[in-house]
Amino acid sequence: MKTTSINTGWGSYKLTIDGVSAYVCPQCGEITIEGKDAVMLQKLSKSLVDVDENQKPDVLNLTEVADLLRVSNQTIYNMIKDGRLKAYKFGREWRFFRKDIESFMGGEEAYGIAARGKTGELNEKDAEIISKYL
Hints:
alpha+beta, Multidrug-efflux Transporter Regulator, Chain: A, Domain 2, 6 helices, about 40% helix
């Protein structure tokens, strides 16, 4: 168990939460937080989404989308490659329309990001818990 900081945000709005207790995998170093902390972070992140529409950026970069979905940049690359996320390449940079990301987040496919079992599938109980807090 280690204490860490979690960074989240939306567009130009950034939020850092210090003092979050996390479990660290000794083999790969991956960090996992407790359910109650994840719910708290989701609620705080969601409050940023409730910002006035004209204050949100219309176009997001890859890191902003990864922060918003709480996944790694590599996961976003994979989601682009397999067609789950609509993205546009400008030079060497990927860009995303906010409306496309919000549409994705409101859809059923977003549950698969939040929690999956060892089989790669989301079980009914997990989906019920997730939908309760979203």
